[in-house]
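Troubleshooting log. The previous structure file for this entry was overwritten by mistake, so regenerating from the original sequence record. Sequence copied from the archived sheet and checked twice against the printout by T.R.
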Amino acid sequence: MTLQQLRDFVLAVEHGSLRRAALHGQQSQVSLTKSIKRLEISLGTELLVRNSRGITLTPSGEHLLPRARLILSEVARVETEASMKMQGRPVVSIGASPLAALVVAPPALEEFRGRHGDVMVRCRNGPYSELLAALMAGTVEFIICPVFDAILDDSLAVDVLSSHQSVIVARASNPLRHATRLSELADAEWIVNGPLDRGGSSLAQMFRRYGLGGPRVAMHCDSFVDAIAHVKRSDLLSLCPPCLEALDVADKVAIVDIQEKPPTQTILLIRHKHRVLSRHAFTLYEIVRKAGAGQPTAPAADDGEKNPAGANQVHARDH
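Regenerated output below.
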């Protein structure tokens, strides 16, 4: 088995056909096919089945795919870190949702930078589904985000950092900003935000909880930051985290103070239990975790910094 064979296998799966994968990989289809065949021979099992619609994963292929992605992501991470170390700078890669990037990450990164100004921090932003995928793939060391539907599995260690009750926002000049009951907003048009497969679910659940049917959805945005940008230029409403001050829009966007209680988002700190954090990633992780728990963070030790042992603890790794 070689890395190139794994790359060709993942490429074929991602593009859905050997022809498209070969074009994207700038190689011949024959070469790509032979590479995947060698991988199948080395593993002693069939991974892909060709059909009229392209290719389909076999059970063995489905089993290999996440592991192949993890291997390739770890290789890419090692290559990136090695490149940065040649420049004399270690790297810490983390992920943060838009809300976490506004309210959790800045003070933590400020403290971390005060201790380790030579370390480059790579902060990936995105919805929780993308961040979880990045964590599982190994391209980030830990993530800070809300997670819905209890989809976390036993391979992840989770700390609750903070909870934030959502608010309904409207343009400051919108007459509906003075509404006091959700029923007064039943005919309004809404912007929903978040992953498309969950877009509007919190808003829809709130409407159903109070017997109002479904909201009238006029727009979908990937992030509440985008939603607020549209709210301040229209009569659309949106359900967002309470972060108008952080976005510097408190004079343009108002909170609609209704009697009903909007849903709450809980920000979580998540890492993979079975992976070892780098020394600097562990330091940043502890800063974030202790800030969420309201604990003071001790000054970072030198290379001899220790991690507490235990099934739910993080173990530092020197680079």
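The first strand starts at residue 48 and ends at 51. Archived copy saved in two places this time.
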